Amino acid sequence: MAEFKVYVGNLPYSVTADALKEIFAKAGNVVSATVISDKFSGRSKGFGFVEMASEEEMQKAISEFDGYDMEGRQLKVNQARPMEERKPRFDDRRS
């Protein structure tokens, strides 16, 4: 099954996954919605992902919500890209 996932950036820190799902449901059937949070503090990082049921619904979500004003913040919405491999931030090998 193909993924029709969008990246949603510049989210207000108060937004929950449920609120994100409710808003994006206006563009079509939402399969899942996730707000990314810091693993240590649990605080939102200000971005998330919404998976739509079809490519048409994904495109509608992008066109309707890119630039959408949410609590005074303009959302940045585009098609999500696969996560790239990242190098470790530090070398934890101790001599």
How is this structure best described in words?
With 95 residues, this protein is of the alpha+beta class. 20% of the residues lie in helices and 33% in strands. It has helices spanning 17-24, 55-65, and strands at residues 4-9, 30-37, 44-52, 69-70, 73-74, 76-79. The strands form two sheets. Strands 2-3-1-6 form a four-stranded antiparallel sheet, covered by helices on one side. The protein has a two-stranded antiparallel ribbon with strand order 4-5. Strand 4 (69-70) and strand 5 (73-74) form a beta hairpin. The N and C termini lie far apart (47 Å). The model has no long low-confidence stretch (mean pLDDT 91).
Task: Give keywords.
Alpha-Beta Plaits, 2 helices, alpha+beta, 95 residues, single chain, 20% helix, two-stranded antiparallel sheet
Summarize the structure.
With 95 residues, the chain is an alpha+beta fold. The chain has 2 helices and 6 strands, in the order βαββαβββ. Strands 2-3-1-6 form a 4-stranded antiparallel sheet, with helices on one face. The protein has a two-stranded antiparallel sheet with strand order 4-5.
